[in-house]
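Structure representation:
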Amino acid sequence: MAATDPLPDPDRIEGAPHPRETPHLFGHLAAEAEFLQAFSTDRLHHAWMITGPKGTGKATLAWRLARFLLATPAYDGGMFAAPPPDTLDVPPTHPVARRLLQLAEPRNFLLRRGPNEKETALSQVISVDEVRRMKSFFALTAADGGRRTAIIDSLDEMNTASANALLKLLEEPPANVTLFLVAHQPARLLPTIRSRCRELRLTPLGPQDLADALTQAGGEVAPEDRIALAELSAGSVGEAFRLTNLEGLKLYTALTRLFSTLPRMDRPQAIALAELGGARGAAETFDLMVTLIDLFLARLARHGATGQPVPEAAPHEATLLARLSPHPDAARAWADLAQTLSSRARRGKAVNLDPAALLMDMLLKIDETAGSLAQR
């Protein structure tokens, strides 16, 4: 990236619309209803932590809630008051919606990773200086004396100093300010931060909601691929977007076809897949292949541990899982292997080891484990 190039949005999936540009949220009616109930009963908490797996729409919901609050008059419940709102929808032509879309709404603060000290790339963390800017923003009196909001995306990207600075704001919240905090792994956050927020937990999307959300983001899902995509993405739109962009369903099918030859793995097939993921300029394919191998091992472990079939993510996968992992002992062996393989591959690539060799090593270890289990 040249020094004059604009930095990418740190809170946008590459190739997809930004959450503030996403008009509809799929699959989270319960969370929306919970917020509307709090709004209509005048029990609006000052800080809402939106949690759940990555890519399930947490940031989209945060922008949707901020847009609603800034565009909707307070509901006083009086005899002559209009009925309480039953939706978070705000027309795209509303001035608030337009200003938020352009990042020009003076009553909203967006806290996210900024540029590094040299302004040549994005910082890896949300700095304490960014949190201080937000505190200074709220120290100013709102022009109309009304509500103000902040969107923090995400808490997981804060360091100790910025988290402590945020905690002080949560302990003494400014008047008429509502904060929406996106958190992918809330268990890793300071307990004192979690205890001062009301949680809205989002769950993974089902096949239909996932397909609808992906279509809205510019992707395409064939009807016959919906279940497979939901399985491999764990209900995450972000992961589904990556899978569709990199033809992840085809890649997973190729992997399961290779694994159907275990415990005498087809070496030409293995070499072809390793070379595909290790090709020059194929870093994204390498990462996806490592992820898919890890996912296959996890599905093997789950099948052996529970004995319950899972929806197929590739043709004949159910038969393959049952053959390779028929009992809990096999499940433990696959789980132990999964713990080490992906981290070893990514560490190896970080120190510039040959990606194709790393992938081939993973495949050989899987073949070795399958052979060992076959002899028991």
